[in-house]
Write a structure and sequence with these properties.
heterodimer, A: alpha/beta, Rossmann fold, 3 domains, 6-stranded mixed β-sheet, two-stranded antiparallel sheet, 12 helices, 39% helix, B: alpha/beta, 4-stranded mixed β-sheet, 3-stranded mixed β-sheet, 21 helices, 52% helix, SpoVR-like_C (chain B)
């Protein structure tokens, strides 16, 4: 007796739970590896898994075992030149590890490191572990025009396309029972009476009564037949109502200073910062659009390639970029439908008079509409006017405005974490 | 040979072809009186094979991180190409489940059917260890029960609590079998039906035993022995040790006697113990089991070829694969990784057949009973009634020793040199055979550790004894294991290593404060 079963279509990943348990158990180890990887990797490289090593001793499942030492007898194959009584130097040196074979190890734990690969999803999970964008509760429902039809029970009116057959048939069935019941009962009674009458002795029969009963029965049967199988009352329709939806769309403005003072190293750091934010938003919204705005003395909306890689020189007027962002929001991204995020990177240089304008623009026009504004200043030097003005904005909008200073690439990840750490204290 | 009509050619397979081959193999296996459970052959993907691997061959397993670790290790090795996946996996169940990977070639599928579905399968059904210790018809049900029960425990008591308990049990799972007592076969139905009942009963029993512990059993009363001698008026067995005899089944002792375990925890201990019992025969019959299966796939494939049912191409591919399976690298090769059970087992079974069919003078001297007897009968007899240790002891012939060029080395830490004490010559055969048999004895492979006493009237500490063999000490893993044991027992745990009558080493957990630094 033999059966063949094709299981190929069955669920894969039966071990997913066990794998997850393992990852949870060694969270701290894995996190360390992931953080190192994020600092080390180039940004085009973020969307892949990562190899993680954990010291074997931290991960072993101990059992009682023989340790080295004592006297062991070993049988090994492949003798070439030994004869009985030969004395040999211990291979390797130290302990009784010796010629390999023997009962000591049944685990094959030769290596010091247990290495495995995280999948891309797992890697990103660890990257964003414990992070939460502030105000992720999204836009208030009142000022939203985005709606989605949702089911809301059944109605008696509707279009034929939405007829719910099961419900309708159930209604019809109930109605038929209700309407036929009394008729059936009367019919049964009439039939019994008729039968009783007919069973009587012919002399005692009442012919007119029989006629009457027969007519009654006929009338009742007609009424029974007249009960419709399906009536318009019975019809039920699936009801759909429009429900306002929290917006699942976000737009992220990347604003970067590309003036002469920004070196390629600065830009690389900024790039990573934008990328992290983007990956993060992507995981939290169904749709994320990117708008790249770069500026020196004048601002310009560009595509990603140009944003990161083209070279510019000149002075710096930050407000030009902010007002361009403001215009773009006005024109294309109504705040009622979009979650708006701005990430700005600069080296802190600005035209002296301009910083004040920036604060004005931000505090009056931009901040009320934004979900979040982040500013990173990539400089090892002392802060300038722009930073000071921004600090005032931060004081005004402490929940939605964040700024940090970055000196080198390795700082990005900690800064990013700090900017977006879960605000449990709120 | 001329009228060769192969069932199929090339390396592609489909279900009809597999069916046809299966029919032929079944017919031939029947000729050789291979008695098997019905076969359930499942075709699976690579990924599913890795899953099956990770759960150590249990078709349904409970969840535990260690299986995840296993999975990651397998996956990593496979991805790097360090390891080919086994082509098959077979489970000792009734019907016997065998997994075939979809990317196997036709030859490989046929080979695997012969190897697993008729070789291993008949071994599971026939070998005395499997007959005694496992119940093939109920294992899948029991695994389902175990999985459900542990999932329920996780819901009720939290994943972490269950995980820690399982960690502790796993550390002791090699000590979950009574080697010299016959077990009652496990049956899932029975288990489920009686489990509630048992919980209550067990707890009552433990409560009686530990009645003096305030937080658990405030009832007044006397100690009662588990042996069920009834009420023992205070002090009657004072001075006696508990348990009266050393206990080798650590998990069983814990399950029945650990003072602080909750009923569900005892049940989990029991589940791990029962599964350890299920795997117990496999740990002791690796050489025989693989040797038997390899012998039969080799024999059956050759029969298929002789009858013209497979073509030369397939046969060449088969021989190439078979040769690499039974290869034994010499001890000084970089590929050497101990004695290959496939090689040794195959060589021995093949040699038994040779001894029966065409015995030499030497064979007549060494195997007076087997030489010249019916080979099939003798082979079946060997398969049914031995385990690796006794199989080697009984059947390892001088010829196999010569072929494999086995030699014996003594590695003594009191001697700065290794000594070769026997080689494949007249003086060495018996000693090599003896030593190799011992090498496969579970009692030598694993340290001999038993529960010696539980101080039920004093500090409730538990004392274990490790009987040292040839001065071989315990590995450092003894401390983490003791920690796990302590977690189960709930009170201090001691372990004494004894050599002869003398205690040579003591281990404590928790570490005594003054010793902690010394260790």
């Amino acid at each position: 007796m033999t059966y063949f079963i094709d299981r190929r279509a069955n669920a894969k990943r039966k071990s997913a739970v066990n794998r997850q348990r393992f990852l949870d158990r060694y969270r701290t180890h894995i996190k360390r590896s992931v953080e190192e990887a994020v600092n080390r990797r180039s940004i085009t490289d973020m969307e892949r898994g990562e190899k993680v090593s954990i010291p074997t001793r931290d991960i072993s499942e101990p059992v009682f075992q023989h340790g080295p030492g004592g006297k062991r007898t070993i049988i090994a194959p492949g003798n070439k030149e030994f004869v009985e009584g030969d004395r040999l130097r211990r291979p390797g040196g130290g302990g009784g590890g010796g010629a390999g074979e023997g009962g000591a190890s049944n685990q094959g734990e030769g290596m010091d490191e247990f290495a495995f690969t995280l999948s891309r999803e797992e890697f990103l999970d660890f990257v964003f572990d414990g992070l939460e964008l502030p105000h992720l509760e999204r836009k208030n429902l009142v000022d939203l025009d985005e709606v989605r039809p949702v089911r809301a029970g059944f109605t008696r009116e509707g279009v034929p396309a939405r007829i719910n057959i099961v419900r309708s048939m159930r209604e019809a069935h109930a109605r038929r029972i209700a309407m036929r019941g009394p008729i059936r009962r009367a019919l049964r009674e009439a039939e019994q009476a008729l039968e009783a009458e007919e069973r009587k002795d012919p002399v005692l029969r009442n012919p007119s009564r029989i006629e009457e009963l027969k007519a009654e029965i006929e009338r009742l049967e007609k009424r029974l037949e007249a009960v419709p199988f399906l009536d318009t009352y019975d019809l039920r329709y699936n009801n759909l109502v429009d429900q306002p939806q929290p917006s699942s769309k976000a737009v992220m403005f990347c604003v970067m200073d590309v003036s002469g003072s920004m070196t390629q190293a600065h830009k690389d750091i900024a790039k990573r910062f934008f990328l992290l934010l983007y990956l993060f938003l992507e995981r939290n919204y169904e749709k994320v659009e990117l708008v790249f705005v770069r500026h020196h003395t004048a601002a310009k909306e560009v595509d990603e390639e140009e944003f990161f890689y083209s070279r510019e020189t000149g002075g710096t007027i930050v407000s030009s970029a902010l007002s361009l962002v403001d215009e773009i929001i006005e024109a294309r991204y109504p705040p009622t439908q979009w979650n708006l995020y701005v990430a700005q990177a600069s080296d802190g240089d600005n035209w002296d008079d301009d910083s004040l304008t920036c604060r004005d623009l931000l505090a009056k026009s931009l901040m009320p509409r934004l979900q979040y504004f982040t500013y990173v200043e990539i400089t090892p030097h002392a802060h300038q006017a722009l930073w000071e003005e921004y600090e005032r904005v931060e004081a005004e909008y402490p929940e939605r405005f964040a700024m940090r200073q970055i000196v080198e690439a390795g700082d990005i990840y900690p800064v990013f974490r700090e900017l977006f750490r879960r605000r449990s204290t709120q | 040979m001329t009228d060769r009509k192969p069932i199929a050619t090339g390396s592609d397979w489909n279900f009809e072809i597999l069916h046809e081959f299966e029919d032929e193999i079944a017919r031939l296996a029947d000729e050789y009186r291979l008695d098997t459970y019905p076969n359930q052959i499942e075709i699976i993907t690579t990924e599913q094979m890795m899953d099956a691997y990770a759960s150590v061959g249990m078709p349904v397993g409970y969840h535990h991180w260690s299986f995840g670790k296993q999975f990651l290790a397998v996956e990593q090795a496979y991805r790097r190409g360090q390891m080919g996946l086994a082509y098959e996996l077979v489970i000792n169940s009734d019907p016997c489940i065998a997994y075939l990977m979809e990317e196997n070639t036709l030859m490989m599928q046929v080979l695997v059917m012969a190897h697993a579905c008729y070789g291993h399968n008949s071994f599971f059904k026939g070998n005395y260890l499997f007959r005694t210790w496992t119940d093939a018809s109920s294992i899948v049900d029991y695994l389902l029960f175990a999985r459900r029960y542990i999932a329920e425990c996780e819901e009720r008591h939290g994943v972490t609590a269950v995980e820690q308990l399982l960690d502790a049990c796993h550390a002791l799972q090699n000590y979950g079998v009574d080697r010299y007592k016959r077990p009652s076969p496990i049956s899932a139905e029975e288990e489920a039906r009686r489990q509630k009942e048992r919980e209550a009963y067990l707890q009552a029993q433990v409560n009686t035993l530990w009645r003096t512990i305030p937080e658990r059993a405030p009832v007044d009363g006397e100690l009662e022995t588990v042996a069920g001698e009834g009420e023992d008026p205070l002090g009657l067995h004072a001075g006696g040790r508990y348990p009266p005899e050393p206990q080798e089944n650590l998990l069983y002792f814990i399950e029945k006697n650990a003072p602080l375990l909750a009923p569900w925890q005892r049940e989990v201990v029991r589940i791990v113990r029962k599964l350890a019992q299920y795997f117990y025969p496999q740990r002791q019959t690796q050489v025989m089991n693989e040797g038997w299966a390899t012998f039969w796939h080799y024999t059956l494939m050759n029969r298929l070829f002789d009858e013209g049912l497979v073509d030369e191409g397939l046969m060449l591919e088969f021989l190439q694969s078979h040769t690499s399976v039974v290869q034994q690298p010499p001890f000084d090769s970089p590929h050497y990784n101990g004695i290959n059970p496939y090689a040794l087992g195959f060589a021995m079974f093949t040699d038994i057949r040779r001894i029966c069919e065409s015995p030499t003078e030497e064979d007549r001297k060494w195997f007076p009973d087997s030489a010249g007897s019916d080979w099939l009968e003798t082979l079946h007899f060997a398969m049914r009634n031995f385990k690796d240790e006794s199989f080697v002891q009984q059947f390892l012939s001088p010829k196999v020793i010569r072929d494999l060029k086995l030699f014996m080395v003594i590695d003594d830490d009191q001697d700065e040199m290794l000594e070769v004490t026997a080689i494949h010559d007249e003086r060495g055969y018996r000693r090599i055979r003896e030593a190799l048999a011992t090498q496969y004895a579970l009692s030598v492979r694993e340290p001999n550790i038993q529960i010696y006493s539980a101080d039920i009237r004093g500090d409730r500490s538990l004392t274990l004894r490790h009987v040292q063999d040839s001065r071989r000490p315990l590995a450092r893993s003894v401390y983490p294991v003791m920690r796990h044991l302590h977690q189960l027992w709930g009170f201090p745990v001691k372990l004494e290593s004894i050599e002869g009558e003398e205690v040579v080493r003591r281990y404590h957990w928790p570490l005594p404060e003054e010793d902690a630094s010394a260790e």
